[in-house]
Amino acid sequence: MSTTTKEVSRTAEDTLAQKSRDSNLVSGGHLVAKALKNEGVDTIFTLCGGHIIDIYDGCVDEGIRVIDVRHEQVAAHAADGYSRQTGKLGCVVTTAGPGCTNAMTGIATAFRSESPVLHIGGQGALTQHKMGSLQDLPHVDIMAPITKFAASVSSTERVADMVSMAARECFAGAPGPSYLEIPRDVLDREVPLDKAVIPKPGHYRASTKSIGDPRDIETLADLLVNAERPAMLLGTQVWTCRGHQDAIDLLRGLNIAGYFNGSARGTLPPGDPHYFNRTRGDAFKKADLIVIVGTPFDFRMGYGKRLSHEATIVQIDMDYRTVGKNRDVQLGIAGDPGAVMRAVLDASTGRADNGAKRRKGWLDELRALEDSKTEKLMSLFRSDASPIHPYRVAWELNEFLTEDTIYIGDGGDVVTISAQAVQPRAPGHWMDPGALGSLGVGTGFALAARLAHPNKEVLCYYGDGSFGMTAFDMQTANRFGAPYIAVIGNNSAMNQIRYGQIAKYGAQRGDVGNLLGDVPFSMFAQMLGGHGEEVRKASDIAPALRRAREAVNSSGRSAVVNIWVDPKEYAPGTKNQTMYK
Ligand SMILES: Cc1ncc(C[n+]2csc(CCOP(=O)(O)OP(=O)(O)O)c2C)c(N)n1
Ligand SMILES: [Mg+2]
User: Fold this and answer.
1) pTM of the predicted model, to two decimals?
2) How far apart (Å, rounded) are the C-alpha atoms in residues 514 and 496?
3) What is the pLDDT of residues 143-153, one digit of tens each?
4) What are the two backbone dihedrals, phi and then psi, of residue 23, each rounded to the nearest 5 degrees?
5) Cα dihedral sign for 36, 83, 294, 440?
6) What phi and psi values does residue 493 have, to the nearest 5 degrees?
7) Which atom of ligand 1 is nearest to the CA of 516?
């Protein structure tokens, strides 16, 4: 150690000693960490910057894990993913200016997916307000339209109070993100501990497990008990509010056909008598009662237009504003989906006849249709074609999943196709970007899922376009002992968009702005010390996946299986351009 270094470290020690003497003082960054701890946050995702370092120092004191990534977009997706996996508040901390703007896609994704994520961002000192300080931007104005709450903190005494306030806002109605800007001098300043407002854990929140109007519970119980052909669609909120067991009990108790989308995929495993997958459109045309739970009538639902006009429609949602939007409903309930479904089950139990037996024929009819639809897809799923058919990859992925594999889809056409085959085996084991459709979510989600569940396997299926967006944080996953299996459906293009271009402008002019070239991504994993391989034959997919699993488990490094798929094959939705309809 040189003399200068010694001097520096002695000075640092002195400062620390000084700090411990002034234990009645607390800085803004330490107040952030205290409030996060009180909120149950055990991990923050971040990329450093001079404006925010005092938060890290506070996290050291509070025992909060600091996961530093290489791009703020990944930090925000990881905070979202961590929240999805733990059921608690996710937290991303970014520096001022570009730190904030880089994280915006992740926050916007959480906004459209209704994930409770707190984004804390740095800002120039209040004393330099509007003077043109480094990285100064109007963060609050920028973040307001994509958050439930966006504010700046103007006094150190209020830092913890406002962190708690922003966190509370994340859980108002349907969850979502909040943004809190903390100017540098507010964050660094020390104030007497007894002057700081620190809401007491467990004393600044109400339960949000509302059942709505109790009379509506009775009405819905009546409707369900009397329905001949009921179908339920369970969406992301069912998982967000951890209402999956309530959903399962209701489906089983009343013998109802269940369909699942978004994060609710995996609520029931394939093979369960109440799990249906391929017949949603048929059920929605023929059902006499359709109950939509925790998912809006947005583009994924054809804005509600594809539901039978003869059926009685019931919508349950955490957001009052979502109920009845885009599509009339006969009954709307604003409340916690799990609590509502439990109350409806309770209200229908004990009735002389809950209609369960009567519905056997309806479920049998759907099951037969379901089986014949699967049968029709089998030739694609089993295809030996060369180049590899993307349906075959999807099928192999499904075969490969275990009860403990968290599956993440991040890509265009290949991932759309995978949704037809991949059926997660347990609740919470499916992650997708949600309604924002943001490519690049995969790496942050994978990192977060593995950190939240160190004993589970994480597999992310990427398109080659998506992989290129955020893959560098695979190194972060390796660095923090959170390795995962990356599978790439590589068609050397942004194929989902390319299809529409070719259809509209012809083959000659259709390849503009969408060809990516052939990249042997296996070498990327190898560069990071992990296992990587290229797959060009359908029969090689399964063994390659097994080797990747073994390599991740034995080396602690992420693996890449780069599968070359046929760029001329597309998903039916891509061919019909249904995403724009
Ligand atoms: C961040 C972002 N940019 C652009 C798009 C538009 N987009 C949707 S699918 C797609 C192609 C994705 O390519 P790839 O991941 O390789 O999957 P492929 O369609 O080729 O299977 C693009 C660019 C988007 N959804 N998100
Ligand atoms: Mg591609």
Assistant:
1) 0.96
2) 9
3) 999 999 999 99
4) -70, -5
5) positive
6) -160, 165
7) 16
